Amino acid sequence: MNTHTHLEPSIIAANRIGPELPNDLPALEIVRRPVVGCTARLCAVGDLGLSGRAAATAKDRGPDALFAEVAPVLHTADIAFGNLETPLASDIAPGNMFAAPVTGAATLQKAGFSILHLANNHVGEYGRTGLIATLAAVREAGILPLGAGDDFVAAQQLIRTDIENLLVGWLGCGRTLLPQEETGPRYWEFNEKELLEAIAQARSKVDVLIVSIHIGLMYMDYPRPQNKEMAERLMSNGADLVLMHHAHVLQGVQITSQGRICCYNLGNFLYDWKEGHVQTPVMLREQNEGAIFWFEIDEQGVAVAAALPTWIDDDCRVRWATGERGLQILNRLTRISLDLQGNFEVAFESQRAARNTGPILKVLAFHIKHGNWRNIVDSLRRARLEHLKMLMRWLAGICRTALALR
After folding, report:
1. pTM assigned to the model
2. Residues with Cβ < 8 Å from 198, sequence gap 6 or more?
3. Are 237 and 362 contained in the same domain?
4. Coil vs helix vs strand at 80
5. Residue 315 belongs to a domain with what CATH number?
6. Nearest in space to 45 (alpha carbons), one of 110, 115, 97
7. In this predicted model, what pLDDT tens digit does every residue of 49-97 receive, in sequence order?
8. Are 401 and 314 found together in one domain?
9. Which one-letter DSSP state was computed for residue 184?
10. CA 35 to CA 319: how far, in whole Å?
11. What angle do CA 232, 236, 242 make, to 5 degrees?
12. How many domains does the chain have?
């Protein structure tokens, strides 16, 4: 097997990867080795939100407008993956946030998607009924749901997307800390021990094993150091490719000495940053930038990995990030990926205090103002010592800024 000890990315013209890509689109080539045996193309993207301004555009211009520019490339893939961040349950929750029509599944299928991760913090937004509706819509559109099912066993099931003689398996889960009913439809709440056991059981059944996890902190350049250690354990135990999402911004990419890859966050692919109880204009440019991660997989795992930069316009349509904007996205992704090879913990803690504290306090203030005491109690229930440390760093930063302005 070809081995890699360091990430040595290079920016190239995207049409060197695929002739169907725009001439002025740059690409970050992350790894390339000779292919072995049967191959398949996988395109993976991050968060998909079909509500908010995306729903308005779909109504005014037709749903195909959301992905029109990038759909031809998604259709070239044997497998196209994304994290569905919006319950398809607007009939159940008309006018409420983070809910899209059940027809959204057909929109995604027409755009080229074939497998959707459902185990995330929004899938349970409208309870058991909302999850049932979402599962039914995804299945009816001919898309495979990942990380959720009709019961807990189904949610943990190995999903197969075999391409001819190449056996490709998927496992999906998410860290939500939200309660679920004991019976009926479930999503797989992240548990590392369970995930490692599932990897061990699946490894001999497939040529390529992909693990998808909804986890991490929002608006951060870096994953939690503990999540990086966890991903390394998953890869050393058999995961060829780990895809993480939830941060709403792109994070770095890591390659192990065995040639296994982790994308620590796939960022937003289509998402309305304005939707929510409060707006969070943190890392706003980066929230509206993402990528199609392009993989060529074979019998030994990932042979080719590249990132094709995208952005979300004001009407919530996905566009290619051509020219200088694309270069800026890829240079940031390169810098963060290289930082992951060293000690990034100090930068992580600093960013966490600066970028996460304000939005959390804004949400708490909203719930206090509106008397949503259940939400407040639930937030306090999940508070830990690390949150107090984050708050203290944030306050210290405010004090330093105030003293500097005196």
Report:
1. 0.95
2. 156, 158, 171
3. no
4. strand
5. 3.60.21.10
6. 115
7. 999 999 999 999 999 999 999 999 999 999 999 999 999 998 888 778 8
8. no
9. S
10. 30
11. 55
12. 2
